[in-house]
Specification:
about 290 residues; alpha/beta; Rossmann fold; 2 domains; 11 helices; about 45% helix
Length: about 290
């Protein structure tokens, strides 16, 4: 299968590497021709870079892994070269300016796309690139899930049809990881950290359920699995960002949890779902 990976940051590069290992012929698009590198990982010979997004027209499927802030802009660039290929959204989070999920943006920019999926789970890019066993949830249509299994056969994939729930987990874990990083420094003790962690995730799940998500999705790899990874490790940008805020230090890199926390609270208010812990933590974080 010929696979187009759109986005060549750490996650896009890791996906391109693992797709090649699974037997796909991969073309990875980057606006500047650059890709991420990982210690001890050689780029597969079957992986080719391009700055010409028109090459995506020749691909059998797309994996879109651009940052959430640039997802819409990138799809607009690629729109003229789409001809019905299955699309796997590999970007987690919500658009910072609108709070929209990536599937909502996809439907807006590419309304003719009927077969798409969402990939989400506990996935540190460097470990995926090195071949560390990794599991993820893949939600979407049967056609999209079939393509995803064929391309990403080196990963353990848990199937789901809960596209909204999987995305809510991806957004929610960013927000809760930020909170957990903050409380790792600022809380009064481990009891308080555990209480806030649990109540915050319950509020995220309540908002998701109101949007039509299935509660069991929050217990899957995309939910509790990704939450465990992101909310307990200083390798997580959001956890580290929360720690930096608590220490009064400058935030390094992109911390999606800030816009995620604001976005969840905004959706909750529109849906009339109470989120006292999330709002309390937003105020403490001063974001």
């Amino acid at each position: 299968m010929k696979v187009g990976v759109i986005g060549a940051g750490a996650w896009g590069t890791a996906l391109a590497v693992v797709s090649c290992r699974g037997g796909a012929d991969v073309v990875m698009w980057s606006f500047d021709g650059q890709y991420a590198s990982f210690d001890g990982v050689k780029m597969p010979k079957k992986l080719r870079m391009t700055q010409d997004i028109s090459e995506m027209e020749k691909m059998d499927a797309w994996l879109v892994a651009t940052p959430a802030a640039f997802f819409r802009e990138t799809l607009l660039r690629a729109r003229d070269f789409y001809h019905g290929q299955p699309i796997i959204i590999c970007t987690k989070g919500a658009e910072p300016t609108t709070g929209e999920f990536m599937s909502e943006i996809l439907s807006d920019v590419l309304p003719k796309c009927k077969n798409f999926g969402v990939l989400s789970g506990p996935q540190f890019a460097a470990e995926v690139a090195r071949g560390v066993p990794t599991g993820s949830t893949l939600a979407g249509t049967k056609v999209a899930r079939k393509a995803g299994h064929e391309i990403l056969n080196k990963l353990y994939l848990s199937d789901s049809d809960d596209v909204i729930g999987v995305q809510m987990c991806g957004v929610g874990k960013n927000a809760v990881a930020l909170i957990c990083g903050y409380n790792f420094i600022a809380s009064n003790g481990e009891n308080e950290r555990a209480m806030i962690f649990t109540r915050a995730w319950n509020e995220v799940a309540a908002v998701g359920k109101k949007m039509g998500a299935k509660i069991e999705t929050f217990l899957d790899l995309c939910g509790i699995g990704d939450l465990f990874l992101s909310a307990t490790s200083e390798t997580s940008r959001n956890f580290a960002g929360g720690m930096a805020i608590a220490r009064g230090e400058a935030i390094v890199g992109t911390v999606e949890g800030i816009s995620a926390l604001r976005g969840i609270i905004s959706r909750a208010k529109a849906l009339k779902v109470p989120t006292p812990i999330l709002e309390q933590m937003r105020d403490k974080l001063k974001i």
